[in-house]
Amino acid sequence: MEKNVTVSPIAKSTLIGQRVKKPDAPDKATGKTRYINDMVLPQMLIGKVLFAGRPHARIVRIDTSAAEKLPGVYAVLTGKDAAGLKFGFVRDNVALKDKVRCEHDEIAAVAAETEEIASRALELIKVEYEDLPGVFTPEAGALVGAPLVHDNFPGNKSLHFEFKHGDLAAAEAASDCVVDSVFRPHHVTHCCMGTSCAIADFDHNGKLTIWTQTQYPYNYKMDLAPALGLNPGDIRVMQPPVGGAFGSKLDVYPYEPIAALLARKTGRPVKVIYSREEEFKAAPTRQAAIIHMRTGCTRDGVLTFRSADVLLDNGAYTSWGPTIPVIMMRTTSGHYRVPVVDFKAQAIYTNNPYAGSFRGYGNVQTTYATAQQMDMLADMVDLDPLEFHLKNAQISGEVTPQKSFLRECALVECLETAAAASDYSRKRKAYAAARDKPGRYKKGIGLASSIHNAGGAKIHKSDGIGTILKVDDYARVTVITGASEIGQGIDAVITLIVAEELGVPVEHVTIVNNDSDIAPWDVGVHASRTTFIAGNGTRRAAQKAKAQILSAAAKMLNEPAGTLELRGGFVVRDTCGTPLIELDRLLRRMHFQNVPELVMVTDYYEPNSEPEGAKHISDHSAAYSHAVHIAEITVDTLTGEIKVDKVTVAQDVGRVINRMGLEGQIEGGIAIGLGYALSENMRIEKGMLRNPCFRDYKLITAPEMPPLDMHFIESNCAEGPYGAKGISELPTIVIAPAIANALYNATGVRIFNPPMSPETVARAIFEARQAGK
Amino acid sequence: MGITATVPGKVHITLKVNGEEMEVSFAPYKTLLEVLREDLGLTGTKHGCELGECGACAVLVDGAPLLSCLTLAIECEGRAIETIEGLANGPELHPLQEAFADLGGSQCGYCTPGAIMTAKALLDNEPEPSSQRIKEAMAGNLCRCTGYQQIVESVEKAAGCCRHAERVKA
Questions:
Q1: Same domain, A387 and A522
Q2: Are B49 and A693 an interchain contact pair (Cβ–Cβ within 8 Å)?
Q3: Relative to the CA of B150, which of A453, A614, A672, A770 has its CA 20 to 30 Å away?
């Protein structure tokens, strides 16, 4: 025993599954956190953008002379200043336009001393337009002879995806029941509470520093560079705290290169920040689509095939929106055991706002279709939907037609847990029996589930993460990681894992993850991957540091190797917990000995998943997960209003890491899904957004949030950190069809064109009664 | 009193913010939100919609919650303005701040200052609100991250702490 150590034995304990607060939460609760929206740099100018305000037009001429003469204006840019600087997935976008293709097209930009002067300058810019006929639905865009949004994309065709497995004609012939329906999921948008913002500044060597809200800082450099004619290596990405992202910051949008072009022109830092109205109009959307889906089964209720023919509203430019079929097809082929699959999707350019990625990434739209068709088929073969689901549910070890390997599959357990907790089968029968009885208010219960990648998605060449971890002379740990914190709570997960491995308090862990010149590479926050991927990276780095520390301790203390552990800030004997030396004292001895050693380790973690590939036959995620939601609702059959009384959730989380963060992600995910299901709707008329404010675009508020009964199923994922799987998208994906199925249970009507707003539901009920159903 | 220079097009008044008298010059049409953030450097109060629809800019004026994006700063001369920066007692967090941090009431945190100020007005007037009452009082504070459950739990916990603190004082 080292002198000065008089601590009693320290028992084994674990933080895994405990509640750990976000390290940034106290500063956020005191107003101390400086978000990007709050930042002011010396000599900073304000940039403002002139939007077209019309969906499709030729720009005849622009006169910026009056704006340029306004005192306090430092630069006025137009399309000619960005000519040839194409960016985006298919290089169809440019920061400032020479033709108008959608309402929010950026026509000119101004940098001025104040926002007031910049706004005044925009008013002085004279633009003469020649309006062109537009296309406002994907069907219209696909017609022969339709006006072209981009001259170099004939037929308005953007991305196309296909996947086929098995003999569709034979499977159809072998089916006793087939449901055939067309779903029309709508446009919604992220509504981050902090509006879009970027600050750009060039140094005199031509290197750009950009403060941004991005959630994928490393690929962001690659995507931003062509919009500026820069080498990606000459871009430094800074990530100050942000007011939400939810997928909206997974691409470069024109305001970011505009800030940089203005900064380059003026030689001063330039900040572009959107008003809420600009945010509604110019931020990306969740993709609207037309999904023609067919599913078949035998009279015993065994699925025989599923086909989906999807037409996507690309909008005017190709961001992440048109890539969502990558996930749509995984759900079409993998949501329950489907032996034969036929999927195709075509994105069509229109003059509508364009879609980005949004929590759920195509699976929100697809599950709205698959989960309702499961319910419809159960009805046709006269089975309790629970029984129908169980009959077709995969079990551990199964492989889907696209080769997703469901190594640990807890779908059956999720179904049984949620159904038992909500008394699903009894209530469903009782509510269906009461459906045609008199009474204005009807109760309904609906079950839905889905599958989603839960260990990243290898759609890039790599799905990995770099981690650097150092432990200083005072046993304070710094983790330098590529993992971005956008409010979702990876910072708490990282501190928890370091504390678990190194036996230090969570408060002694510092995270550096806001500067691309410092932190190593990561793909970004998407695909429910960050706890899984960054959790593994952090754990591996911490274990390397721990091995180094324990090896030095064994030598110094003359203890057998492999018998020591780190606990409570001490090196202890593993078996009895007897403290042998304080960790910080040991670290100083390691540092200041004859052959000094510092504890600083690096790790690059690449998950064992396979690249997506052009054929889409690959085990593209390191894990897959399921969630089941059972929604209980009351429908006012007169007004069409749906009140959600309760939601029972059973989700395969692999293993709970930070219980508080997990609950917060599921509750928040369901709130976004409820808005999608019930009230949120971008009203786009001939390309123009008619409701760009929270009064007319209705988010879920506190009193509308139903009680949630959450059950976490721990399937212990072999590849996940401590067994964990990614969790954050499924809650948003599953809730809408659970409500749709509850609506059917209550009233006998189905809504194929969400949201299930009062007017839509009341009309459907009215029409069903008129038809005598 | 020092010499007050008059800047053309600006008013020069004293605002009482978090108990401190602050002299400030600003264009008379500026909102309280803009003056707090731009002229007084108090960026804890957030800019969410500038239309009075999201609650991110809520502050207390004479104890009542008020949307600072819809209020002209000149209307607040001589009134007691409380912002999120004034809630903590030195290094000691207000029970609401402590609860929001401890219970996950804050994820991205952008709506948190407005939510806490609204909750403070509620608890100042109703020390023991039901969870339904808390939800109704917070209906004007939009949050896109949490689904509100952990916000409601935070306010409930803070209400318990405030009551406890009052009992100890008494």
A1: no
A2: yes
A3: A453
